[in-house]
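quick q for whoever's on today - can somebody do inverse folding on this one?? i tried earlier but teh output was garbage lol. tokens:
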């Protein structure tokens, strides 16, 4: 009787382990497929590279897309597709994808926009540097590094903040400040900030 019971337990454990292994393999294949889909857009012009971005920041942005807080009412096909893809993902999948990109080296884009670099330097140092260039500032505000991003993309996102077209699923004082600060600037000043960021001087 004990031998039969032991055999029964062994068989149960064997098939449980096999089932877990199969599930893990299936999950890994699915995540690889999702990352390939991400790369199909995020390695092209004017779409930001995700390489080296903080995992928690990436998760926050994916949540913004999932809950229609980013790119609200956007007519951009890329933004609409981003929202659609983010809504398919579960929380554990968001974390796995974010961890994958955080571990990759940052890719620096050289593309810029026209603008007054000297004025941009003054505006950036007065209003933006504390959150986006300081390690301590980024830690406390969860603000991303941005100087490596594509210039036209940076300008587009700053403009969206200034027009209330980028919202947050989870609000806090730092995110609210980002919107408020962006609204202070004219289009020319936002271009100047972007031009300075891409001048390799920050």
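ok took a stab at it. sequence:
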């Amino acid at each position: 009787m004990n031998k039969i019971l032991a055999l029964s337990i062994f068989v149960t454990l064997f098939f449980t382990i096999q089932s877990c292994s199969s599930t893990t393999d299936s999950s890994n294949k699915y995540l690889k497929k999702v990352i390939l889909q991400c790369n199909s857009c995020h390695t092209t012009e004017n779409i930001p590279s995700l390489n080296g971005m903080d995992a928690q920041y990436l998760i926050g942005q994916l949540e913004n897309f999932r809950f229609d807080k980013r790119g609200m009412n956007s007519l951009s096909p890329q933004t609409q597709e981003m929202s659609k893809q983010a809504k398919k993902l579960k929380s554990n999948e968001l974390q796995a994808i974010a961890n994958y990109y955080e571990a990759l080296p940052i890719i620096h884009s050289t593309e810029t926009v026209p603008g007054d670099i000297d004025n941009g330097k003054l505006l950036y140092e007065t209003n933006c540097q504390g959150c986006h260039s300081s390690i301590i500032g980024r830690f406390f505000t969860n603000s991303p590094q941005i100087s490596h991003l594509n210039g036209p993309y940076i300008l587009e996102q700053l403009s969206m903040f200034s027009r209330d077209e980028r919202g947050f699923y989870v609000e806090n004082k730092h995110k609210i400040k980002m919107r408020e600060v962006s609204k202070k600037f004219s289009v020319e000043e936002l271009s100047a900030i972007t031009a300075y960021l891409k001048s390799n001087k920050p």
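fwiw The two ends are 76 Å apart (CA to CA). also The chain has a mean pLDDT of 85. so keep that in mind when u check it
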